[in-house]
Amino acid sequence: MNGYLGIDIGSISTKGVIINEQQQILASAYIWTKGDPISAVKELLFLLEKQTKDKEIDILGVGTTGSARKLIGSMLGANVVKNEITAHAVGTLSIHPDVRTILEIGGQDSKIILLENGIVTDYAMNTLCAAGTGSFLSSQAERLGTKVEDFGQIALNSKHPAKIAARCTVFAESDLVHKMQIGYSKEDIIAGLCNSVVSNYLNNVGKGKKIIEPVIFQGGVSKNVGVKKAFEEATGYKVQVDENGHLMGALGVAILSSRSPILKKFSFRITEENFETKGIECNRCPNHCEIICVRKNKELIDSWGNRCENGMIRK
User: Fold this and answer.
1) DSSP secondary structure string, the chain?
2) What is the pTM of this model?
């Protein structure tokens, strides 16, 4: 059968799916990026190949999205490289065609996407601060001596959630320590953290946006039932969490790859190749552009970052 590969590579996690012509997921994987996107993608491809080794699949297209989409797109020879907004919208619409609002909170970023009749009408992303994201919750879980995976269920046991300032990670940690010292229970503190994540999201990422049902919650944090409950209480709407919500970006870009008029057969043997990246500063004009060079087995395959012809990198 024909298949299409979609990879969503972010600063914290790397997600991948292989779909068939009917947009059904044949294989999927979710791993940590660990600051090394090239190694993470090689590991991801190994896991996906393992899941499909007994199936005869010709992968005819590759799509990439996420913060390292251009780098990994060059590495894999992707036929589609798309931003996260488009990828998440397409992926979600393939499963929830009537969706009007997408709430997404990942490891270090978050976004809101508003749709009407299957078309993105507005969106917003967090900017400089990671307060209220997955990495924020993970650091607080470590401080509390609790697994972040258990946060949601613990939060549901709270009767009186503590009020914790989450507009800034530094302030939140200080407030959390203060609440512990004055005697708040762990359940109330964790529930307070879940509520503060939602408050921070709605007041920053969702500021000025009109949330309309159906509402879909995505990203790694969507697995936290405490945060899901907090969203429902804050918005007054039922918030849906899809079992593959963490894969929506990868699914969306795989679908976009399948629609591309330019198809190129992909081989998992790409994992055996050696890839290197190097950043150089061009001093040929006052721009001083930072140029990224990507090499495959020491041969230059792509470069970007130059703003004029002076910075063109040639083989």
Assistant:
1) -EEEEEEEE-SSEEEEEEE-TT--EEEEEEEE-TT-HHHHHHHHHHHHHHHHTTS--EEEEEEEESTTHHHHHHHHT-SEE--HHHHHHHHHHHH-TT--EEEEE-SS-EEEEEEETTEEEEEEE--S--TTSHHHHHHHHHHHT--GGGHHHHHHT-SS------SSHHHHHHHHHHHHHTT--HHHHHHHHHHHHHHHHHHHTTTT----SSEEEESGGGG-HHHHHHHHHHHSS-EE--TTGGGHHHHHHHHHHHH-S------GGGGGS-EEEEEEE--SSTT--EEEEEEETTEEEEEE--SSGGG----
2) 0.86
